[in-house]
Amino acid sequence: MKNTFKNIDEYMLLFPEIQEKLEELRKVIHAQNSEIEEYIGYQMPGFRYKNKPLVYFAGYKKHIGFYPGPEGIKNFEKDFIQRKYKFSKGAVQFPVNDELPLDLIKQLVKFRLDEINQKKS
Question: Structure pTM?
Answer without folding.
Answer: 0.94
